[in-house]
Amino acid sequence: MEVMALPAVSPTPGEVFAVIRDHRTVTRAEIGRITGLSRTAVTARVTALESLGLVIEQDQAASTGGRPAAQLTFNVDAGVVFAAAIGRSRTQLALCSLAGDILASSEVDQEPGMGPDELMPDLVKRLDALLDDSGRRGTRIFGVGLSLPGTVDQQSGASLDSPNMGGWDGVPLAPYFRGLTDAPVLMDNDANVIALAERRGGLGEFDDMLVVKASTGLGAGLIMGGRLQRGAVQAAGEFGHSKTAAAAGVPCRCGDTGCLEAIAGGWALVRDLQRDGHPVGHLRDVVTLAHSGDAEARRMIRESGRHIGEVLAAAVNLLNPAALVVAGDMVGAYDVFVAGMRETLYGNATALATRTLQIMPAIHRERSSMVGCAITALDHVLSPGAVDAALGNALL
């Protein structure tokens, strides 16, 4: 019996947009070569994308002869996305273009222990104010990107297990935004969004990357084989509550004892310095002390790096990343912190696993979380499926 080959599915407008978004600037002829579409089909899809404002024609490109080819450009100003990186003691807010560039931003220092009903209404008001700060009032809002410390359930849009954010687990956050926008609300773990930001921000050469967020708490984002890895229950990278002999018997804020965070997390450094009479309230204050030459602050940051490096050595052996990226507030004292990390990481990991390992600070530095939240939203709202849905699923 002869089996008939099914016809190839023709690329949709959303898939054509993905080409334009990836290249930023491209001609119709180049789209045709990449997608295999005819000139007429390319024009029809581009016309549909122009109707959404996502694509515009730019100045004509140089040509080797005949009529110059018009260039199509991803219109990054067709709308905006909100970003909110929520932490235990600080939240970073931003309004971003469709390219993920920050147009306006603000920070909110909050009392630890605030629940969503106490914090979220204020954050939404502050996000709304960013529209005025950026001069983008009236611009289409495509989406909202959120991050939280701990494990996140992306389906329900709620924290699944965050031992450091009491009262947040199981509470959907999208409803808080309905007075501001009905755009999709996308959510992920704080270290995961930083990993996305770093991968897109210039570290795309590394398909295997371990991104460590060292801040009030500790976490990691894993890029393996070029893809973000979340694990079976979204809990990949939660190394802050790994047990370590150096913390034996030391109480952790999660309610257990012996966790790495209990001796190396930013909150632990603040705790110990406060006991010694230092007027610090956050890891950022500890970093400032270190920069002022305070020997105790510098020692504690280096010791934090040593403890973290000892635990991460096992991860380096297991995963063999090409790059280890340091992000979070500790990046402000990168040299001191990494000096300690290198001691134990290279001392405990195998020579083969570390032979070509590159350790570096986050490209986006203190903005990594905000950029990552924006990317989390953009990857959803500008996906081929979302663009096709906006066009009424019309396959031209």
Automatic annotation (TrEMBL):
Domain of life: Bacteria
Protein name: NagC regulator
Protein family: Belongs to the ROK (NagC/XylR) family.
